[in-house]
Each structure stands twice: as structure tokens, then as C-alpha cells.
Amino acid sequence: MTDTRPRILENTAKLSSIIIPRTLAYATNTQIPARSPSERRRMNEGSKKSRRRRSSSLLYQEPQESMEHLSDQAAIPNLNANWVNAKGAWAIHFVLIVALKIFFSIIPGMKPDTSWILTNITYMFGSYLMFHWVRGIPFEFNAGAYDNLNMWEQMDNGDQFTPTKKFLLSVPICLFLASTHYTHYDLTYFTINVLALLGVIVPKLPMSHRLRVRFLSGPPDDRYLDER
Questions:
Q1: 25, 126, 147, 209: least CB-packed within 10 angstroms?
Q2: Which residues neighbour 219 within 8 Å (Cβ) at sequence distance 6 or greater?
Q3: CA 140 to chain centre
Q4: CA-wise closest residue to 134 among 142, 121, 125
Q5: Burial (CB count within 10 angstroms: exposed 0-12, middle 13-18, buried 19+), residue 217
């Protein structure tokens, strides 16, 4: 009689190897090697280059802030933009316009129509520089929360057609009408006045909110890549 015990033991070993999974032991002190600062910098630069290649259009929309930036914006009032709602902030525009007109009028040999168009251009240029060109705030208490927003976008928390923004829209239009009238509707002066007016009116419209021109602004989302 043949002994079947070795065959039974062999079959049992095969069956146990199928049913019972094998366990692997890992060292508890195994750590993933950390990247050096130079490697992280190279990865960020590569991400920026790829982002620039993907966003190659002339115009792009400024992305929304992260939750961290939004919490920084809500932490402290924005003194850079809140002053436009204060008493006397509206009157300063008329004072500046009158002062510019007097300044250009007292220049020897200056014609009245030329002084009006210079007043118009100077006010429009200063308005664009102040409200639409400069981004961020001159203070260091918001942790850079407004670094990618100009003053117009910071005003009234980005709301459109508030009383202050309506006033700031109407002042350039009224100055344009006055300048056009006192330059006797000359075609050359009228063209210059229209271009100056469009330069400050178009950036104030809702369609231009957070809209950037590539050769005037940096690539989008660079601040998020720098923080990683």
C-alpha cells in the first residue's frame, strides 16, 4: 500500500499559498527623499514656462484668489481703496482739474484750446496710472493679498456700478465734453480727446474686470507657483 501523506501535504501547501496572501515587511524608518531647493526651483521654472506656452493669447483673465488670499483680504480693511468713499475724495478731482487748467493757462504763449486738451490728457493719464496701471498696495499689512489687483478692482470689493465708480466714470466724460467744446470741435483735438477718454473708460467697464494685456502684465498664476 502506497503512502499518500506526502502528496496530501504537497497539495495542502499549494492551496495555502493561493488562499493565504503573503505579507511583505517594510522598514518603518523608510522615508521619501526630499527634493532640494534647487530641484524645486527648477520644477517651478518648468511649470512657469509650460504655463506661458499654454496661455499664449494677447489677453488673459486674472485668476481668482485662493482661500488664503481671500482670508488675508478680509482680515484688515483695505486702506488703499477705501479712501475713495471718504468725504472730500470726490471733490479732489474737480480741484485737480481746475489746478491743471490754471497751470497750463499761465504758460506764456499757451492757447486756450491747447490748455484744455493738455488738461484733459494729463487728467486721463493720471487717472489711468492711479486706478488701472499700478497693482497691489503700498502697505505691508495684507500679506500681499492684493498684489495682482489694481485699485479699481480693489474698490468696493470688486462690485460694479457703485456710487463711487459711477462718479469716477462720469468725471472723464464731462471733462471730455468740456474739452471738445472749448477746442471748437476741431477734428485733430477731438480725435486725441476720444482716444484719451477710451483709455480710461474701457478699463472701468465690467468686461475689463481682471482682464490683462500680455505685454503690460506678467503671466497669469505666477504668484501661486512662487508660493509652492
A1: 25
A2: 48, 51, 52, 55
A3: 17
A4: 125
A5: middle
User: What number of residues does the chain have?
Assistant: 228
Q: What are the angstrom distances between the C-alpha of 144 and each of 132, 136, 151?
A: 18, 7, 14
In degrees, rounded to 5, the angle at the alpha carbon of residue 211 between the alpha carbons of residues 207 and 215 is: 140
What ranges in 55-111 are assigned the alpha helix state H?
Answer: 67-75, 79-82, 91-105
pLDDT tens column, 61-101? 777 776 766 766 666 777 788 888 887 889 999 999 999 99
* 3-class SS shares of the chain: helix, strand, coil, % to 5: 60, 5, 35
pLDDT tens digit sequence for 163-205: 999 999 999 999 999 999 999 999 999 999 999 999 999 999 9
